[in-house]
């Protein structure tokens, strides 16, 4: 489950105890995933977006105009940065954030009710459909929210806030017996 | 015996008996009761004491307008004071206590105020308690304060949890009475996302307490059927026990749901209350109408209540308000109550009708006295009779309950919370909802429609219109048929003349009609003045019953229409909301998120004590065995860094990656010192100003390549600096091509400082870091021997040979461990922000203790950094103003205590020797102070008027807060190694 | 009619039918020596001191609504003189001293309650800042005490000592500070001014300022033109609008500040307590309601209403400071319009236009300043000379570089 | 307004995601402009009761500065545009 011997996960303390069997509503914490901020240069935003979007294993998370967090399920951090720089071909600046962010994947029948306790964004499928992503506040914590499946959302949070967000999500899910574990 | 439980009827579950106590007496009620209905069923007529005169009071209403029946529910940390018994759902084990009485509810010493009432008229306190002067503070005020308030708050930690939730909908229906349910049904069937919120625990509103039938069945059956259908629709959310308390901009509503207020043993999985923030495209105000009390002599006797409340007690709760009930009415409502009660076998003593004639039908055999009024009531703590006056003749009629009805006012509170005033309607004899646009429309009784059929069709029509507006295919729902519809009418009657005793307008605050007269006489005739002077409408019910009558009475006295008097301002909250519910989860340790450094675990392993630094937890010092005080640890850490080497976590500094062809130009305009020609591979200390010329933040700027800079900020200002850069890039200079993003969380950053820093670090780093290869202010991307990609900076905040090493956050702990291991032969230690602070103090380096927002670069001794040759930078222009450059400004100096045993404290002020403390004589202040373990005495940084000219002068360090004045010598702020020999080693 | 024990008894025994209006409702005269725009606390106190202390009695106060309809009737009633900067502290202490004799001076009980104001600190840096402030107070002769955590626990046991996000380490206490009954202050000054001959004209909105040869000669109002020798603006949140009528450009932004009151409770909070982990402050009124507030809503606004997000944040701070507040219910919220200045400090000064005087920029702290503001403004108007304690509060301080910036936040009004 | 802002990049968002920076009606003066112009820019505000332009920073969203055109008396919002676009528009 560990990327390399000396990497310490921000939630190692929190998730140390043996996990309960996953309930219907479950929080999976990505052990790590390579990701990078992509800052498109002037006039290059659409071209950059298209070239990244053309790669199936890369996931674009909208952060602002001409700015994305790009998440990869397969690359290592340095590989991702190189890959993105190649893809963007000078049209964007790439900043590795793999160590600076933690991914939470929330899944289950009650996720929308759980998220509504912290997020002031209408995540009804009609307004926030599959593939949608946005920077939002969850309580007092800034996160990037994405809908990755009908009943699955990913929250990407700055590493330093990860413990706080974890506590918040567990409390938000208490009425639904939300469980949590590392995902891999 | 007055109130009693009827043998049948009501929407209560007679198979579920609930035990509860009132003032310690065990009582019983049924599931479906409110505390009020259960109390009344037990003939507990006396339920409270009023605020000012401590008069005995009984239940008046069945809803949130209740002014009298305020009780304290629960005990210990679960105490809820001032709870309205009329909205408190009964549960088994509920304990309720009466309030504002001593020693007991039946015998209350405070009632003596009633005797003194001629002296305690409206505003009496403004005219008295002034002689002699010192008596106010010592005698009068403590006395008044003791009398203040109603219930008692325990101020203990609340064991229960609260939360908030967002909700979004096409249509919010506020109130689940006939019009609200009909509207929800229409919209729900059309496919709109609908939310229905109702404050009651059972949905149905007036459908639950009317004797009318719909489609041949009791109205409550229609309510239940409709609720069931709404529950089955996935696009409809029903929120019972949920009060919409506020209407805010953009059609956002605040509502509070009482999730577990009605259970004896709350589940730990659920919250006590939940605040909903509801974003609604459209909303319907289906809040019904409020019946008006009549203002007549003795109208506050326990047993006098609203006629509609009597109906509700009978129909919904199966409780009769009395054995022999009289009614006093100016409209048809009184007759309706008489019919309802009569049908249930309650004796009706008489209907006293203020009107000369009407078509209203009294029950068979019931005496109707027309053109009559009640001028007094008899009894003490419960009603025994009424004095009826007609054509100058008085008659005493025995009764044990009196229902009063002065007509109806639409409940339009929410519609008036955003500045619009309610509009007087001559037709309705009431203030109606203002037109506030399509976002929020009144419907049903809130819209002045007082027939059941009218409410149902208004609900259906309005919802259909909204559905069409929002592009839904509205199927017009068939409006059910109301059988034997009853007409409704009334005459407005604000004040019943001829009162033989106090005629109360505001029951809870004891404002009676004469108080309003006094207010008018003293010039407080404006409705807002009258309210403030008499306190009418300022009680916990916020005048739901009293305001309209006060307006009518003022209008009468001033000889104008109520329209001209107008209303006082409606503001949130519609009914009181607990602070806990509004606060939600962000409280206690969770009041703000906690940010943890990637080296937090490393610091814990090394025994750190942590301190709050904004949102961050930072390691403050690392106590070792045998060290008794923090000072011992800090002194050791400082001395070790000066003698050997130490490692400090500086990950919390703000870090920003700046890119672009114009990045250099951009940064050059941000910093007051030059950045444009910063060489690649170099770092520089930088100072940002605000546009007004004062220091904003300091930090470093490094250049990794032509178009890639790296900026660090102080921990505290990381957010503001980022925002400032975004403002400059986006709003001021969008023509510059520059892009940046925060990388604060990506890096674990550690300072390795001390003469042996290089020796330690060289074991970790791949490549030469000797002074020649990696001189002071170098900044480079490097690779560690372990293969970890890192960044290395040669910068120092301690005055020692020092490096800052940044590695990816996840590797931070391992690398720090490695350094500690490599440093062990060199006596490395972990040091925290306290030692860091002493180290920088000894070197005269500055933090936000110095940069307090009122300091110029020159004040701080950094005037040479200002690059006035630059065409422009933020703060350049205003930095040259007279006041920012005057010779007598306070300038940064060092202070050394003359007596080495004395310490100094930040926050002390400075005086010239021989002068007395005064604002005029104030020479400056101490910004940072501490003990220098290197020098062995206290040192301080201070701002002193024209300080740089005054080195060598003795000043008094004035710290009156601990009664200390010591003498210190003014000196250069750099106490240690002024030549920077160690730094550049 | 002078209020005394005798008058109270006599009236009580005659059914309270003989009380007279507390101030007259005069029609405006064609001309006054001084017209004051704004019938709030500051306008009324200015009129009172002009007439009583400076012998200027031909004075009118023009109020567009009912008397006291602005911030004097919707604030959290706190009175204190615990400032740090030399430009402020003497002024607020002067005000404090006037408060202490106000009831006898006005013959009106404004219920000054010197219950002590304590500002909590939660970090060493905050403690140091409060020490600096407390010593600045002592420099002006104003008593201040640093209360350390253990002592504070005894003094105010119900604070959140054990589960606070930011631990409560102590507080800075000014014992003489406290609260006063806000409406009574407006009414007391109005009655006092009226008794000295001042005309208080309610429901009279100023719609224009007439100038001849660059000199102000009077005001257009909804009750017609009224001439004046000198015109004094004390229009608080509406200062920019009134100033605009004379082409004055002011360093002000109008912002909304919310205040809240709970249901009446038996006495439980003795002091005025200020949370250092945010901006929350709370006290208990003589009627029993807990009165509290915190930061401004943040955007410029003339709408006297607040938003829910800020209200929720205020409650968060409240229950974080005093956990036992959680079950207390808040009854009502107000939104007052603050004339936020660029440095968070007020302005009392002449203007570039002859005979036009300016009093504004009170931010969220105008109530405590009511007596000194009126006194110093009256001094300036009557003598054309700045009162010594108001010397730092001049309008040109921004241009000259002498901002009086207690918060150190710079020219961004919503940060003060 | 005051409850929700429609960010041109992120859609409808609650107030708490934003920080208000203040008046956006005037551009930053040129370095050589007069002292008075600079003083007015930094310290003086029109502060209208009515329509105004204000910088709102979408701190917890796209981190763009927006220019919100709205009414200070009614809180009605007329337009929201990106500050860079607004600055360029004013330039033209």
Description:
The complex is a heterotetramer of chains A (184), B (985), C (416) and D (92). Chain A is α+β, with helices and mostly antiparallel strands and 184 residues long. Helix content of chain A is 21%, strand content 34%. Chain A is globular and about 50 Å long. In chain B, 21% of the residues lie in helices and 29% in strands. In chain B, strands 9, 10, 13, 14, 15, 16 and 30 form a 7-stranded mixed sheet that branches. In chain B, strands 45-46-47-44-38-48 form a 6-stranded mixed sheet. In chain B, helix 15 packs across helix 20. The longest helix of chain B has 18 residues. The relative contact order of chain B is 0.07. Chain D contains 2 helices and 6 strands; from the N terminus they run E-E-E-H-E-E-E-H. Classes of the chains: A alpha+beta (184), B alpha+beta (985), C alpha/beta (416), D alpha+beta (92). Chains in contact: A-B, A-D, B-C, B-D, C-D. Chains B and C meet through strand 7, helix 3, helix 9, helix 10 and strand 34 of B and helix 1, helix 5, helix 7, helix 9 and strand 16 of C. Strand 34 of chain B pairs antiparallel with strand 16 of chain C, so a sheet runs across the interface.
Question: What is the strand and helix layout of this fold?
Answer:
The complex is a heterotetramer of chains A (184), B (985), C (416) and D (92).
Chain A: E1 26-29, E2 34-40, H1 45-53, E3 58-64, E4 67-72, H2 77-88, E5 92-96, E6 101-107, H3 111-116, E7 133-138, E8 141-149, E9 152-158, H4 162-172, E10 179-182
Parallel strand pairs in A: 1-10
Antiparallel strand pairs in A: 1-6, 2-4, 2-5, 3-4, 6-9, 7-8, 8-9
Chain B: E1 4-5, E2 13-22, E3 25-31, H1 35-41, E4 46-49, E5 56-58, E6 70-73, E7 80-84, E8 94-97, H2 112-115, H3 133-147, E9 162-174, H4 178-190, E10 194-197, E11 213-214, E12 217-218, H5 219-232, E13 236-239, E14 242-248, E15 252-258, E16 273-285, E17 289-291, E18 304-306, H6 307-317, E19 319-320, E20 324-329, H7 332-343, E21 347-353, E22 368-369, E23 373-378, E24 385-390, E25 393-398, E26 401-405, E27 408-410, E28 423-425, E29 430-432, E30 440-442, H8 452-469, E31 482-483, E32 504-506, E33 511-512, H9 513-521, H10 527-534, H11 547-558, H12 562-565, E34 577-578, H13 579-583, E35 595-596, H14 600-605, E36 609-613, E37 616-621, H15 630-643, E38 645-649, E39 654-659, H16 663-670, E40 683-689, E41 695-705, E42 708-713, H17 718-732, E43 739-742, E44 747-753, H18 757-762, E45 779-783, E46 789-793, E47 802-808, H19 812-823, E48 828-830, H20 833-842, H21 882-885, E49 890-897, E50 909-912, E51 924-932, E52 937-945, E53 954-959, E54 964-971
Parallel strand pairs in B: 2-8, 9-10, 9-16, 10-13, 16-30, 18-26, 20-21, 20-26, 21-22, 35-37, 38-48
Antiparallel strand pairs in B: 1-19, 2-3, 4-5, 6-7, 6-8, 11-12, 11-31, 14-15, 15-16, 17-27, 23-24, 24-25, 28-29, 32-33, 36-37, 38-44, 39-42, 39-43, 40-41, 41-42, 44-47, 45-46, 46-47, 49-52, 49-54, 50-51, 50-53, 51-52, 53-54
Chain D: E1 4-7, E2 11-14, E3 19-23, H1 35-43, E4 51-57, E5 65-71, E6 77-82, H2 83-91
């Amino acid at each position: 489950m560990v990327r390399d011997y000396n990497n310490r996960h921000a939630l190692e303390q929190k998730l140390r105890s043996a996990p309960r069997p996953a309930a219907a509503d479950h929080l999976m914490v990505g052990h790590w995933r390579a990701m990078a901020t992509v800052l498109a240069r002037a006039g290059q935003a659409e071209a950059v977006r298209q070239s990244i979007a053309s790669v199936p294993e890369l996931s674009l998370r909208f952060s602002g105009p001409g700015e994305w967090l790009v998440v990869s399920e397969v690359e290592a951090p340095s590989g991702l940065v190189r890959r993105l720089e190649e893809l963007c071909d000078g049209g964007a600046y790439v900043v590795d954030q793999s160590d600076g962010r933690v991914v939470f994947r929330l899944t289950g029948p009650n996720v929308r009710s759980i998220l509504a306790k912290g997020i002031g964004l209408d995540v009804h499928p009609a307004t926030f459909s599959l593939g949608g992503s946005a920077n939002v506040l969850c309580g007092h914590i800034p996160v990037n929210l994405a809908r990755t499946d009908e009943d699955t959302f990913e929250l990407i949070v700055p590493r330093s806030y990860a413990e706080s967000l974890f506590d918040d999500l567990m409390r938000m899910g208490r009425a639904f017996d939300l469980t949590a574990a590392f995902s891999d | 015996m007055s109130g009693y439980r009827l043998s049948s009827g009501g929407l209560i579950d007679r198979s579920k008996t609930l035990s509860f106590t009132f003032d310690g007496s065990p009582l019983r009620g049924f599931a479906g009761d409110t505390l009020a209905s259960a109390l009344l069923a037990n003939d507990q007529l006396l339920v409270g004491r009023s605020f000012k005169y401590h008069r005995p009071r009984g239940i008046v209403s069945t809803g949130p307008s209740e002014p009298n029946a305020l009780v304290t529910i629960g005990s210990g940390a679960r105490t809820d004071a001032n709870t309205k018994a009329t909205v408190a759902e009964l549960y088994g084990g509920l304990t309720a206590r009466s309030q504002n009485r001593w020693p007991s509810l039946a015998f209350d010493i405070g009632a003596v105020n009633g005797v003194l009432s001629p002296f305690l008229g409206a505003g009496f306190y403004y005219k008295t308690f002034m002689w002699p002067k010192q008596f106010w503070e010592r005698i009068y005020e403590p006395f008044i304060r003791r009398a203040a308030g109603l219930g008692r708050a325990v101020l203990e930690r609340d064991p229960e949890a609260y939360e908030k939730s967002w909700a979004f909908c096409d249509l919010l229906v506020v109130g689940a009475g006939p019009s609200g349910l009909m509207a929800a049904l229409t919209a729900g069937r059309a496919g709109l996302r609908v939310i229905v919120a109702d404050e009651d625990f059972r949905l149905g509103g007036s459908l639950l307490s009317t004797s009318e039938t719909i489609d041949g069945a009791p109205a409550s059956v229609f309510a239940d059927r409709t609720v069931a259908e709404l529950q089955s629709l996935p696009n409809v959310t029903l929120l019972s026990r949920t009060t919409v308390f506020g209407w805010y901009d953009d059609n956002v509503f605040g509502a509070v749901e009482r999730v577990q207020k009605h259970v004896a043993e709350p589940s730990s999985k659920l919250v006590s209350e939940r605040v909903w923030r509801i974003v609604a495209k459209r909303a319907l105000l289906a809040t019904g109408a409020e019946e008006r009390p009549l203002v007549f002599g003795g109208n506050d006797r326990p047993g006098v209540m609203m006629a509609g409340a009597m109906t509700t007690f009978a129909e919904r709760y199966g409780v009769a308000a009395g054995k022999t009930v009289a009614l006093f009415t100016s409209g048809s409502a009184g007759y309706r109550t008489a019919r309802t009660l009569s049908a249930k076998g309650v004796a009706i003593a008489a209907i006293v009708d203020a009107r000369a004639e009407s078509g209203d039908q009294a029950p068979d055999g019931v005496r109707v006295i027309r053109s009559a009024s009640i001028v007094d009531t008899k009894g003490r703590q419960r009603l025994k009779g009424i004095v009826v006056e007609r054509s100058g003749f008085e008659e005493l009629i025995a009764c044990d309950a009196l229902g009063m009805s002065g007509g109806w006012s639409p409940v339009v509170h929410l519609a008036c919370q955003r500045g619009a005033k309610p509009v007087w309607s001559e037709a309705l004899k009431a203030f109606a909802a203002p037109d506030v646009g399509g976002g929020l429309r009144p419907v049903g009784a809130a819209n002045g429609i007082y027939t059941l059929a009218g409410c149902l069709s208004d609900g259906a029509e309005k919802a259909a219109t909204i559905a069409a507006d929002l592009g839904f295919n509205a199927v017009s729902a068939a409006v059910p048929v109301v059988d034997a519809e009853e007409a409704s009418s009334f005459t407005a009657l604000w004040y019943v003349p001829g009162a033989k005793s106090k005629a109360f307008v505001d029951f809870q605050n004891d404002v009676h009609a004469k108080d309003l007269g006094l207010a008018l006489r003293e010039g407080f005739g404006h409705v807002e003045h009258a309210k403030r002077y008499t306190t009418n409408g300022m009680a916990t019910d916020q005048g739901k019953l009293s305001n309209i009558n006060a307006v009518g009475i003022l209008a009468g006295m001033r000889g104008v229409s109520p329209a001209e008097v107008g209303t006082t301002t409606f503001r949130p909250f519609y009914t009181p909301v607990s602070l806990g519910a509004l606060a939600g989860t962000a409280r206690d340790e969770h009041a703000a998120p906690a940010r943890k450094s990637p080296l937090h675990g490393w610091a814990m392993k090394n025994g750190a004590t942590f301190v709050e630094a904004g949102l961050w937890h930072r390691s403050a010092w690392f106590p070792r065995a045998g060290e008794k005080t923090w000072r011992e640890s800090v002194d050791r850490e400082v001395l070790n860094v000066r003698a050997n080497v130490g490692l400090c976590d500086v990950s919390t500094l703000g870090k920003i990656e700046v890119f672009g062809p114009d990045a250099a130009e951009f940064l050059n305009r941000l910093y007051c010192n030059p950045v444009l020609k910063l060489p690649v591979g170099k770092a520089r200390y930088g100072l940002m100003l605000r546009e007004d010329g004062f220091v904003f933040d300091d930090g470093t700027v490094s250049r990794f390549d032509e178009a890639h800079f790296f900026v660090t900020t102080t921990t505290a200002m990381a957010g503001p600096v980022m925002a400032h850069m975004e403002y400059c890039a986006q709003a001021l200079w969008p023509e510059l091509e520059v892009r940046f993003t925060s990388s604060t969380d990506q890096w674990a950053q550690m300072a390795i400082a001390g003469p042996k820093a290089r020796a330690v670090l060289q074991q970790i780093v791949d490549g030469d870091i000797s002074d020649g290869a990696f001189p002071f202010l170098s900044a480079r991307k490097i690779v560690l021997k372990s293969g970890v990609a890192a960044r290395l900076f040669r910068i120092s905040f301690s005055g020692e040979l020092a490096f800052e090493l940044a590695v990816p956050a996840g590797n931070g702990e391992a690398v720090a461990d490695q350094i500690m291991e490599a440093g062990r032969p060199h006596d490395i230690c972990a040091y925290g922000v306290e030692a860091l602070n002493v180290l920088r103090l000894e070197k005269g380096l500055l933090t936000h203790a110095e940069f307090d927002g009122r300091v110029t670069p020159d004040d701080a001794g950094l005037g040479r950094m200002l690059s006035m040759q630059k065409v422009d930078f933020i703060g350049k222009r205003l930095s040259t103003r007279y006041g920012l450059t005057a010779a007598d400004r306070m300038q940064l100096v060092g202070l050394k205590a003359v007596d080495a045993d004395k310490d100094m404290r930040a926050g002390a002020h400075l005086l010239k020797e021989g002068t007395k403390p005064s604002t005029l004589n104030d020479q400056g202040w101490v910004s940072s102070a501490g003990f220098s373990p290197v020098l062995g005495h206290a040192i301080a940084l201070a701002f002193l008027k024209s300080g740089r000219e005054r080195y060598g002068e003795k000043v008094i360090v004035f710290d009156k807060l601990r009664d200390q004045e010591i003498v210190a010598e003014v000196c250069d702020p750099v106490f240690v190694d002024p030549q920077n020999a160690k730094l550049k080693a | 009619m002078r209020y005394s024990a005798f008058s109270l008894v006599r009236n009580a025994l005659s059914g309270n039918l003989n009380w007279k209006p507390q101030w007259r409702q005069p029609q405006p005269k064609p001309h006054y020596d001084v017209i004051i725009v704004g019938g709030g606390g500051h306008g009324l106190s200015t009129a009172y001191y002009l007439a009583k202390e400076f012998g200027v009695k031909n004075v009118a106060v023009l109020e567009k609504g009912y008397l006291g309809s602005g911030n004097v009737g919707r604030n959290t009633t706190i009175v204190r003189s615990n400032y740090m900067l030399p430009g402020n502290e003497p002024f607020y202490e002067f005000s404090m001293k006037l408060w202490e004799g106000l009831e006898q001076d006005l013959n009106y009980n404004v219920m000054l309650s010197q219950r002590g104001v304590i500002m909590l600190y939660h970090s060493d840096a905050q403690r140091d800042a409060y020490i600096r402030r407390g010593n600045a107070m002592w420099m002006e002769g104003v008593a201040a005490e640093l209360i350390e955590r253990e002592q504070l626990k005894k003094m105010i046991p119900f604070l959140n000592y054990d589960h606070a996000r930011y631990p409560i380490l102590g507080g800075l206490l000014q014992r003489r500070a406290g609260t006063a009954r806000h409406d009574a202050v407006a009414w007391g000054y109005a009655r006092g001014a009226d008794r000295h001959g001042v005309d208080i004209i309610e429901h009279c909105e100023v719609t224009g300022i007439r100038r001849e040869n660059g000199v102000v000669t009077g005001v257009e109002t909804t009750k017609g033109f009224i001439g004046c020798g000198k015109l004094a603006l004390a229009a608080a949140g509406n200062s920019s609008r009134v100033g605009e009528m004379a082409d004055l450009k002011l360093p002000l932004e109008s912002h909304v500040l919310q205040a809240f009151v709970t249901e009446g409770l038996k006495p439980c909070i003795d002091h005025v307590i200020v949370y250092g982990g945010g901006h929350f402050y709370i006290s208990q009124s003589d009627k029993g309601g807990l009165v509290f507030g915190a930061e401004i809503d943040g955007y410029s606004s003339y709408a006297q209403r607040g938003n829910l997000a800020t209200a929720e944040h205020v409650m968060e701070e409240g229950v974080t400071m005093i956990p036992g507040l959680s079950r207390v219910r808040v009854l009502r919220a107000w939104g007052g319009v603050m004339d936020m200045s660029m440095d968070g400090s007020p302005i009392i000064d002449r203007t570039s236009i002859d005979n036009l005087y300016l009093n504004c920029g009170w931010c969220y702290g105008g109530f405590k300043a009511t007596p000194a503001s009126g006194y110093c403004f009256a001094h300036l108007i009557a003598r054309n000379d700045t009162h010594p304690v108001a010397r730092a509060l001049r309008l040109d301080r921004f241009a000259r570089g002498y901002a009086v910036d207690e918060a150190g936040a710079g020219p961004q009004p919503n940060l003060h | 307004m005051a409850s929700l802002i429609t960010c041109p990049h992120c859609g409808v968002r609650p107030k708490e995601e934003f920080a208000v920076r203040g008046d956006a009606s005037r551009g930053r003066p040129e370095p050589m402009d007069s002292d008075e112009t600079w003083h007015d820019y930094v310290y003086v505000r029109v502060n209208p009761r009515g329509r105004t332009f204000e910088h709102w920073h979408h701190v917890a969203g796209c981190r763009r500065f927006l220019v919100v055109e709205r009414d200070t008396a009614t809180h009605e919002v007329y337009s929201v545009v990106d500050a860079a676009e607004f600055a360029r528009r004013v330039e033209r």
